Amino acid sequence: MRVVALISGGKDSTYNMMCAVADGHEIVALANMEPKGADELDSYMYQTVGHQTITRYGEAMQLPLFRSHIRGTPRLQSKDYQVTPDDEVEDLFDLLVDIQGSVKFDAIAAGAILSEYQTLRVLNICKRLDVQALTYLWQRNQRELLQEMIECDVIAILIKVAALGLSPQKHLGQKLADIQDHLLGMEDSYGCNPCGEGGEYETLTLDCPLFHQRIVLDEVETVVVNDDTVAPVAYLNPKRFHLEPKKGFDGRQSQFACLQKYLDILTVSISRSIHRKGLGSCQNFNE
């Protein structure tokens, strides 16, 4: 199928794209919702930290990138979603309607892992657009997922921390591979989610096998939201960044060819996904 990938800049949407391609689909466009007048929004639906770098994702993947501002708010906060004027979900729906006018697609890829709030809203949108939802990470074991992402060279850094055990000074900017043991230890000690599904941290993907060029951060600003001594909240605000060619990368490769090295891992990952049992389809979920 031809797929529009919903991207936040985080590791989950990146890895979900890789699973979709490994499963035989083609990413034909990227879609992103960006904040208006702020860097970090109190949104249940969207990650907005690091939004500045999203401008380079289309070029990095050699794909059209469609963006729109988040104008609405989470007006309907119940788990199940019905069309609600001025809700932030309608901003995404409107963007995808616009994309349908210029790009033919059959499915939407979304990287939600545990959030029913996000997943049910994406599936609601899919049903209204008459397309499929590709949600390979849905309800996956987070320890397994984190390991798979690292083994598949998803190069992502912590761009926000908000949990006991994470320090802005020590952990912001660290790569997943370098902090993996610490994240697993946080689960053992405090019950934290290894993939950050409880809001413990957010990530920014700088490179992955689908990128033709990698993103390099030249200058970042640390923004402290809450300097609590137990669980401080802070994030990195990218100020300057650029794309860097990847040595030995053949830009003419197909998306699937880019993943050849990782197909064994991705095939196992896809087999573990309940998406393959039909639960990722809007026809079989929330009806």
TrEMBL record:
The text of the family note is: Belongs to the Diphthine--ammonia ligase family.
Kindly state which keywords UniProt assigns to this record, in alphabetical order: ATP-binding, Ligase, Nucleotide-binding
Name a GO molecular-function annotation: diphthine-ammonia ligase activity
User: InterPro entries, alphabetically?
Assistant: Diphthami_syn_dom, DPH6/MJ0570, Rossmann-like_a/b/a_fold
Q: What is its EC number?
A: 6.3.1.14
Protein name per the record = Diphthine--ammonia ligase
- Which Pfam family name is an example for this entry? Diphthami_syn_2
Biological process (GO), any one? protein histidyl modification to diphthamide
